[in-house]
Amino acid sequence: MAIFDRDTRILVAENKDFRNIWLGETSAHFGGQLTSFLLPLIAVTYLHSDGTGVGLVSAVQFLPVVVLSLIAGVMVDRYPPRRTLVTASLAQGAALAALGAFQAADGLTFGQLVGAAAVIGVATVFYEVAYQSTLPRILPLGSIAAANGLHQATYSVSTLAGPSAAGFLVGRLGLSPALTVAAACSAGAVVSGLLLRGVKAPEQPRESALKAIGSGLRYTWSLRPIRDLCVQAGLSNLHEKAFLTIFLVFAVRGLDMSGTTVGVVIGIGSVGALLGSLCANRLTKRWAVGGVLALGAVLAALGLLLVPIVSHVGVFVAVLASVAMMLNGFGVALFNVFAVSLRQAIPPEHQIGAVTASYRLVALGTLPLGAVVGGALADALSPGTALWVVGLSYLVVSFWLTLSPLRGARTLEEAQRLGRTAEASRTEDTDRSPSA
């Protein structure tokens, strides 16, 4: 723990609820990162799918974000998070175990792979909304950035280890052992969720699910600080997923990389994310939170744009691509730490679940679209050309937050006041509007 700052060390040592939920999230993230790389890798290497098929497998894992995020937000605001965390982890583990059983019996089919990916995607939506909505309920405002920095650090380590482990397990031990490891990670998340006792849902007026969903959407979209975060996250994730889908096809078929090598290249990129998450809280001692947030988005785009550049060097392509991925990971971590912290700090407690779900709908709802677009571009153009198209487009949209009032917010408290001021202004304008 010495690599973390003092605030983070104190947080882990003294807050039992946070420690329990963080350990479960660590296990869930490792399993999730292993799985998200493993499933499309199975499509490429075992089932010999084309770019569109690979994109479909990736998209199905994220499609539930579009369909179920708002429902997950309502459930999280109404029920204790322990129930949601445990149920979601059990469902994900069962889907992975089923894939292993199918493979051991008669071999996997593409339909079975897509079906399991859908179940895993549904479970992930509910787990992530519950986790992110719980943090601001068990932590003071001053500890949220440190908690999200630690969360992003463990996420980065998982992203580093997950694809590498997936490539190694499939290449050396076979598919069934790889699926068994992923299922075991879900079991670890179940145990951690069971330990989270005493955290209750916030008290709020009872209303229908549809009304609660509408209220959350209106609140999220009417406040410019949260709306700007949603737009930047959605555009970034669309480009990230499209790029990685193309890169998987390009690396295997254009650069003749093995699945293990591709996993290592993508995984090493998470070293940058780990560095970014460790630096994030320290950077705000000198620079404004909003400025670091905007910088992170631009650095993430620049990192991916370097990948097609280094692919033409001809030597040490895997090493140079890893360095480019590290820059991307560093930027993504800076953005994520403060985007999540701002999203948790600005809304009142009874709106946290709804805002989390609405934000994730916009931010992560673009992932399936990105996967499909990436696969289609790889087939329609060529994987190499498609990397350039997506990389340049990503760089352009990464400057969105430089136009936002969030860019000038120096601290989370200042950003919270900015959001509350925007909320008061919105309420005042609504009150002045004539009745229908």
Automatic annotation (TrEMBL):
The keyword Membrane applies. The keyword Membrane applies. Keywords: Cell membrane, Membrane, Transmembrane, Transmembrane helix, Transport. It is found in: Cell membrane. It is a multi-pass membrane protein. Its main location: membrane. It comes from the Bacteria. GO terms for cellular component: plasma membrane. SUPFAM superfamilies: MFS general substrate transporter. The chain crosses the membrane at residues 21-47, 53-73, 85-104, 110-131, 175-196, 261-280, 287-309, 315-338, 359-378, 384-403. Residues 423-436 have a biased composition (Basic and acidic residues). Gene3D superfamilies: MFS general substrate transporter like domains. Residues 417-436 are annotated as: Disordered. GO terms for molecular function: transmembrane transporter activity. Residues 1-416 form the Major facilitator superfamily (MFS) profile domain. It holds the Pfam family MFS_3. This is Major facilitator superfamily (MFS) profile domain-containing protein. It comes from Streptomyces cahuitamycinicus.
